[in-house]
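Intended use. Records like the one below are meant for learning the mapping from a protein sequence to its folded structure. Do not use them to infer anything beyond what is encoded.
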Amino acid sequence: MKLIFDQAVLEKVLAVVSRGIATKPPMPILNGILIDATDTAVYCSATDTELAIRMKVPDVQIGASGKLLISGKQFTDVVSSLSPGQIKLTADTNKAIVQSKQAEFELPSLSAADFPEMQGPSGVTYIVDADNLKTAIKQTIFATTSELLKPYLSSVLFEIKPGMLRLVATDARRITVKEIPVQSKISRSILVPVKSLKEIAEIIDGEVTFMIDDEQIFVMNQEITINSKLIIDQFPNYQQLIPQKFMGEIILERDAFIKSLERTSLVSESVKLEIRNDSIILSSAATDSGQFREELPIAQSGDLSTVGFKVKYLLDFLKAIDTEKIEFKYNGDNKPAVLKLKDQNDYQYIVMPSRL
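Structure written out for the chain above:
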């Protein structure tokens, strides 16, 4: 293998691909980045066997083709340490030599033949805007958990219908539901791991094409392909858990609510909300940390109520949005409440109260 890269270009590619390297690899090859050079193109790949990332490297001069598996962290650090300009990479079965104008590294290589093969995209095709998808991921994944015995709790449901993609997540105490537009003709429901979605959200930009088969989702964006295994589990019937009628509703300012909840958390992890005709009183108390009380103005309709929540559960939702006003619909202290953006119906947050 003989290749000449632009240092800045290769550094950007490695920053993306290295996201696929296993955190605690069960075998040394999963520490590596595979460089695969054909006569016409060069690709860099990494995988932890659950998630795989492959990216085409632009602006490469190919002197000789071949495959090289090299420590991903070390190679990324080496490239980042070099000055801008051309980098020459030559490799054989045992080592790789990385040369710039001023410096030269000789690095050990791994067995490229043992590296897991990355499956090519297959299945039904869908198209979505990257910004919409990133927002949907941000607004759902916080309501998940790493519960190993119930895999659906560490995944997000992709519920696809013609023209609409709905993301749904739960940790058994709350549910997030977010809808975004998608170019689709075929309905499908899958479970995508949270870990994969976090990486996807960091990488994608512009228009995103994804394909789904029985075992994987393939996300294609510019010169990047991301493969993720799907979670095989039964997601609960979340629709029946979303209340349709409420005893009352309030509208309040998001920023003021966030600041008051953050002050509440200095005393206790739980907050009591006393809903009055034109105000809401937030209060908390703990034996070893004192008491807190604050009153905020609201617009209220329906019956009055007093209800408690985990402060974190409310802040997670409020910090995932950027609207000025929110709607808070409630049904007392033993039934779920629903929070949403005022006058918008594409995002709902269903949360169970806590005992006062």
